[in-house]
Design a protein that fits this description.
heterodimer; A: 390 residues; alpha+beta; Butyryl-Coa Dehydrogenase, subunit A, domain 1; Butyryl-CoA Dehydrogenase, subunit A, domain 2; four-stranded mixed β-sheet; B: 351 residues; seven-stranded mixed β-sheet; 11 helices; binds flavin-adenine dinucleotide; AcylCo_DH-like_C (chain B); AcylCoA_DH/ox_N_sf (chain B); AcylCo_DH/oxidase_C (chain B)
Amino acid sequence: MDLVYTPEQIEFRRKARDWLKENVPGTRPSSREEAAAYDKAWQRRLHDGGWAGLNWPKEYGGAALTGIQSLIWFEECERANAPAYGLMSIAQTHAGPTLIARASEDLKAFHLPRILRGESLWCQGFSEPGAGSDLASLKTKGVIDGDHIVVTGQKIWTTGASTADYQELLVRTDPDSERHRGLTWIICDMRSPGITIRPIETMMGESAINEVFYDEVRIPISNVVGDINGGWSVAMSTLAFERGTTFLRDQISLSAKVERAIDLARRTPLADGRFAIEDSAIAEKLAELKAEGLGHRAMAVANVSNVDRTGSPGPEGSMVKLLVGGTYKALGEVVTEILGLGMLDYDHSRASNPWAYDFMNSWVVTIAGGTSEIQKEIIADRVLELPRAR
Amino acid sequence: MVAAHALIFCGALDAMDLLLTDEQEGLQSTFAKGIAKELPLERLHGAQGQAADNASLRTFADLGWLRMSMPEEWGGLGLGYAEEVLLFRELGRNLGPLSVLAGVLAARLAASSGKLELAESILDGEEIGIVVPEGDAGAASGGAGRARLFSTGDCRKGVLVLPDGASLLDLTALDGAAAPCLDGTLKMCSFELGDARPVGHTEGGDLWWQGSLLTASMFVGQAEGARNMILEYAKVRQTFGRPIGAYQAVRHPIAEMTARAEHARCQTYYAALALGMGRADAAMQVAAARTLAQDAARKNADANIQLHGAVGITSELSAHLFLKRGIVLSNLFGRKKAALRQILNDDLMEV
Ligand SMILES: Cc1cc2nc3c(=O)[nH]c(=O)nc-3n(C[C@H](O)[C@H](O)[C@H](O)COP(=O)(O)OP(=O)(O)OC[C@H]3O[C@@H](n4cnc5c(N)ncnc54)[C@H](O)[C@@H]3O)c2cc1C
């Protein structure tokens, strides 16, 4: 155990801080198309500055950062108020790593540079109306026809489908197969004929998620990652990356949000004229959340150290996701208490009231990317080896 | 799959690190084995518990565990808080004697206030109790008010630690009658602070923060101990033809117990390092560790009792002991309220 940064790490932090100071762009626009262009431009700038593919290996154009360096980088991003990956997130944090681990050299050569340079946006087509937590029950059909797979069916909750260039698509290629056998992981070009996208409005008032319909969409077999009917293991590595360090920035942002809430409580009077911070129930709740945030950071340090040492993210990612979700929700509750009626001033855009947005979004945190219940199942199975119900 | 990840995370090991070094791993396993052997939870059922704890204090002293963080001229190893938290986590797991905590703090107090003989006798295993003032800790600085002494057996000295200074008190002259305590594995006496004779004193908050940190570690151990107890039971107890651990209403709380204990453990290790470095945010880090660990210990004690069903509330099972000892610890080094105030008012450190 050691909390001392090496001279190299201190130098790395300084370099990151200086670069971010010069390069952080203005506010992200709210319209979907403009936001997509903004996210791509930011990725291009990261690439040109040498900050693309943070933990991808050098041979694929990545920055090959250690876990601790990634942590430092995200801390500096938070300090500089730099944009998050946004719509680039899937390409950067799980499509790219999955391709590196499992795709053919041709697919790597084509896609990886485009992802790094911010030229392609990706989306994830796993969930279906009948298959969310239970991904193995998916039904979207892929029929092999010569050197193509012809896809028919429907995906849902697809973040960024309307702006995406490519999709991580999971389909059932063996019609007689059950559960996780007979699935194939394939790269779908989102401009292919036969794809229809219908946006779904969220309770925050955005339409970042979509239904995607496939009507005999022809995808070249050369786009398959892994083996035909062997898509389950590819999907599992995608999810392992997703739960690995994808949420690191969110974790760090959460602590900053707690600090802002404390500041809000110092400035906001309650009905009785006292400032919210003078209310002991509010003050204690905020202090508890601050302690939770410190604990999240300590856990992040332990987890990235572990990844640096062993080379693989363990099931700890599920513990962090579970805990962070809880803190998000509790933060929304206490801010609702502080703001009172002010929590209601919301014109269905994040900018109009980030507190209201974040509170509504806390259910996204506990549902998307595997629900809290599923994280508990993962802990019960893989950490505790409890007997299974299934 | 491991190979695939190895490809992605290709960094070398860094200094900034919350994992144990090989030496620390070694120490931890020594503590774990020693304490599991000396202090199995079953000892706390029946009269032999106190005798076992008294004997173990001597054993730990003989093993040098009390002096491991003392400098070499004291026969110590010059180790730090990072190693102490490992010892206290194991003690917490087996509800070890509070006099180990009292001894570590009192020996440091005696040594730094020049009471060398006293320090030696404590390091050799003389039992010291923990003194907790009633009411506001601040009022006790003047030596007034009532206080309670917690100990394993009969002890003649107690250590009183306050946020701004600490005293070693001679309690020989007291008629502080032992009162029955909710935690029946401890001896509790009530006395008038003015009647105790100070035999050593130090100024400053060092012992307060060390005490808070070690209390946090014991809470972490308790949170893990309670989790381990129910985890074992969940694998063997059957209902409706299945082990209860197969039901989500049981699996999920145990998963939550695990995440909570990990959260508190990581924060406690972090706080130990921050305190050892004398970092500007050390008090806040310790207070956060204390808060998270106390919550984890309480919630895990609760879930452990609940998920055992009726046997959970019997005195034969050790589940209640985690709850009761947790209530004792939650009164040491200020209560949670004070820790929360510290957290709220201190600034996050710029890194
Ligand atoms: C904002 C947002 C963005 C998303 N983006 C994408 C995306 O880009 N691509 C994509 O593929 N998917 C995406 N998802 C889908 C997400 O992965 C699923 O919503 C999630 O996995 C849950 O599946 P479900 O919604 O079908 O709920 P269900 O699986 O129907 O679950 C319903 C409830 O039952 C509980 N439950 C289910 N199974 C169990 C079990 N075994 N034990 C205990 N409880 C259980 C769940 O926790 C939940 O509370 C997104 C979701 C959201 C909210």
